[in-house]
Design brief:
Blueprint: E1 2-9, E2 19-22, E3 32-42, H1 44-49, E4 53-61, E5 67-74, E6 86-89, E7 102-106, E8 110-112, H2 119-123, H3 126-139, E9 152-156, H4 161-174, E10 177-181, H5 185-194, E11 198-200, H6 206-212, E12 218-223, H7 227-234, E13 238-246, E14 265-268, H8 273-277, H9 284-297, E15 305-308, H10 314-326, E16 332-336
Length: 338
């Protein structure tokens, strides 16, 4: 099968940072599906896992954690899908990634592809949807049934992949009042189009901007950018008993003391936790992707695809990583077909 992989972890402009390869097609066993990959999308985690270091792989490493495709075959313990089913998912970070023609994935973290989306549109969604869903509804405990409607959510980094779906989930499912940060006219327009009620500039101090909107503090904060940079600025703007969730690992020890006075809850979200540790509730990712598909088919949610760069090959994947590393992308970048 065709695949895009690497042996060495190199700067993206190095000719060998990604290579077009021919690999053996894997065989499904257990609860695995063998999926014929139709489209993939690229996330910051891909660039982080490819970041330059001295390690050299003996066998090629394939990255990629967003796939839409068709089930080619199923392991003997599979009960949720059958060959021919169209699916979408983010996979496991402990297994070979989806930048290949045929990919193995545990059925418990796979959802049915929304029927009204093409493969490219669907591939833009899984990793970021799972991250946003778990971060808001599981980690911060926001009700997706509307019990917290009207409460305020601040999204740090609203125009990125996670922010783009988080805004929609917060508005359409939870009924929250959403303030998103964006620093450029195009990113501000993007988050407003997705449903953000207010937009503030993350290159300026948060507190004065929120006060100008008449909301000195917010009930929830979803931090989708540098935890080290933002945590000191969040304590003054979170309400007493408020909740903060961050998805970015800290680069240094964090001082949480400023959050104590307000009894603030702070949580981490890492969407690969369930698959990495085979948690008892691992199937919840299957369930949430299916519920998302139903919401998309009903017109309540929409894809966050912003750019389709063409075929899945080394050249196009290098270009996608350059864009991700530049840090100014809107929504999601997708590659489609081999």
């Amino acid at each position: 099968m065709k695949a895009v992989g690497l042996y060495r972890y190199l700067p993206i402009d190095d000719p060998d940072s990604f290579l077009d390869l021919e690999l053996d097609t894997p065989v499904a066993g257990g609860r695995d599906l063998l999926v014929e990959v139709k489209a993939i999308s690229v996330n910051p985690v891909d660039a982080k896992r490819r970041a330059p270091r001295d390690q050299v792989e003996k066998t090629p490493r394939v990255l990629g954690w967003d796939v839409a495709g068709v089930v080619k075959s199923a392991g003997p313990q599979v009960t949720l899908f059958k060959p021919g089913d169209a699916v979408y998912y983010a996979g496991s970070i402990l297994r070979p990634g989806g930048n290949c023609e045929f990919h193995l994935v545990d059925e418990r973290i796979v959802g049915r592809k929304p029927a009204n989306l093409g493969f490219a549109e669907a591939a833009a969604l899984p990793l970021t949807t799972i991250t946003a869903w778990e971060g808001m509804f599981d980690r911060m405990g926001i009700s997706r049934a509307g019990a917290d409607a009207g409460k305020a959510l601040l999204v740090i980094g609203g125009a990125g992949g996670v922010g783009s779906i988080a805004i929609q989930l917060a508005k359409k499912l939870a009924g929250l009042s959403v303030v998103a940060t964006a620093s450029r006219p195009e990113s501000a327009a993007w988050v407003r189009a997705l449903g953000a009620d207010q937009v503030i500039d993350h290159n300026k101090e948060l507190a004065p901007q929120l006060e100008a909107l008449g909301m000195k503090e917010v009930d929830y904060i979803f931090c989708l950018n540098s935890t080290d940079r933002w945590l000191p600025a969040l304590a003054p703007v979170i309400k007493p008993l408020g909740k903060i969730c961050t998805i970015v690992s800290a680069q240094k020890p964090l001082d949480l003391t400023p959050l104590m006075g307000k009894s603030t809850t702070i949580a981490w979200e890492f969407m690969f936790t369930r698959s990495s540790f085979q948690t008892p509730d691992m199937i919840e990712q299957h369930n949430l992707l299916n519920e998302t598909a139903a919401r998309i088919e009903a017109g309540a949610l929409k894809t966050t695809l912003s750019a389709n760069l063409g075929k899945i090959n080394a050249a196009n994947l290098k270009y996608a990583h350059r864009l991700i590393e530049a840090g100014h992308t809107l929504g999601k970048i997708v590659l489609e077909g081999f």
